[in-house]
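Hey,

The postdoc asked me to send both predictions to you directly instead of through the lab channel. I've kept everything plain text so nothing gets mangled by the mail client. Protein one:
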Amino acid sequence: MYKILKEEGRAKRAELATVHGTIQTPVFMNVGTAAAIKGAVSTMDLQQIKTQVELSNTYHLHLRPGDELIKRMGGLHKFMVWDKPILTDSGGFQVFSLAKLRKIKEEGVYFNSHIDGRRIFMGPEESMQIQSNLASTITMGFDECPSSVADRAYVQASVDRTARWLLRCKKKMTELNSREDTINRHQLLFGINQGAIYSDIRIEHAKKISEMDLDGYAVGGLAVGETHEQMYEILDEVVPYLPRNKPVYLMGVGTPANILEGVERGVDFFDCVYPSRNGRHGHVYTDQGHLNLFNAQYKMDAAPIEDGCQCPACRHYSRAYIHHLLKAKEMLGMRLCVLHNLYYYNTMMEEIRDALDEGCFASYKRKKLDGFSQNS
């Protein structure tokens, strides 16, 4: 299922075989929260910009349009017309991000919907049922993501509960995958390591969840307020305690530099809203750092966003035209920036895999980081 092809230090070049195709890692998953990439990007577009994995949000799809409706429509792949792997998060991050709208108990979490205020409940079993209805390729265990500034006692109690929840997730997923009416009976389950910035709590939790022999493991609760240096220190401490023969997913990260540092530390999977969110605001990524195409300096710039880039924006349009679209508030400007950014990320991951194949990742990383610093 998961096979390491090359190694360079702790960095891994691998592949994960799934029912929806084989994922080449390291990989960046393109975030489509509500079964769509924000910025008017279709799944046909995703096929054109080298996307391997699309990521959707369990909590948001449960609220709208409803996971049972999606199941009746044949599952998320048919609903959004995407035949490659999909990862669904567990809804656990909303426990963190919607702190004012929820109450955490041993059985699960009580929410008030951010849409209409109605009372809803989600626990480990409910999260697995929703993700089974969605019929995604990879599911995530239900967890709490404690704040990076939470006190030690709170974090310890939270992590212990997350470990108990993960056992319930595994049991429920086994049951769901045995049912005749389950759309995808080959769903994979990844467990999530938590512990804020307390490395000893994270290490103990990593050891505990590693014993559960899941399909993969994630490091969650980073990129939520701690410094980049703290994040890298946590990865240095924790990743060695996760199974080497299973994929490792760093959740919600990050910038191109973050990804390079994560790969060096043994991470296989990444996701982040940065490329789409920043693109919608005219910020685009290049090998010389990021550009803000709203800036007046691009008003008469006939060059593409980046010379040599083969994305749909750079193949056809100038910085000047995209600058005009953004200033005129034409949706096409936003769409072109998002397409470029996602293509840039997906291409960078392709380059990372090639560098690992050739045994030159360290030099590739140095060159890439040096380029970013030109316009940081």
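Protein two:
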Amino acid sequence: MARTTPLAPMIGAGPSTTAVRSPKTAELVAGTLRRMVVDGKLNEGDFLPNEAELMAHFGVSRPTLREAVRVLESERLVEVRRGSRTGARVRVPGPEIVARPAGLLLELSGATIADVMTARSGIEPMAVRLLTESGNAAAFDELEQTLDEHVAHSWQSGRLAETTGDFHRRMVELSGNATLTIMAGMLHEITVRHTAFAMKESNPPSKADYEKLMRSYRRLVQLMRSGDGAAAEAHWRKHLDTARALLLQGLETVKVRDVMG
């Protein structure tokens, strides 16, 4: 159940002895509240302390406080339901918060799909090595289950791009590296859209292609279970290089903006 969080235990009991007088007061207040989220003092689903408590602590007016909350809302760190008496609720964002702006920047820069796929080839092999060396049996089981229940037969349903894209992203997430996870999340939609386009318009996979793909995925999980990080990384780098060559065949100069529409 969501809870409204008292302010005093987190910042210090009692009102501030010195009110904030900076011209950027709202940004300073927003920064303090943002830090509470980062430090885990405010968690997903918590409500911010009530307005009266926040105003007293920071020594600010209601308009200034509401401006600070709007800053956090624009960052998608809080959700405000207009007319609700419960106030602003903390929403911890995932990679999707940067995926759309990142995609737009790639479009504006004239980046090609080849650029994106090359970047993915740098991200995923490292994630594979980290996951392999962690020896996380539960993660390996999850990936195997994803292949059996999510990816299997998706070639027939026409959803191979989406299901394999989910496998790639989840694999990076399971590596435990937050930076690689965010980067993979940023590129996820772009790579899935391009893969779907390439499979449909230019290089539709045959049943033999699909079976070869599944063997490569299962070999990856097998290598990760063995604990051989170098072998798993090398296998996945080769897999991505092969996939990139196939998916870019005849589409080498396609730009991100052409895929995103």
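Summary for protein two, as requested: The first strand starts at residue 78 and ends at 80.

Thanks,
C.
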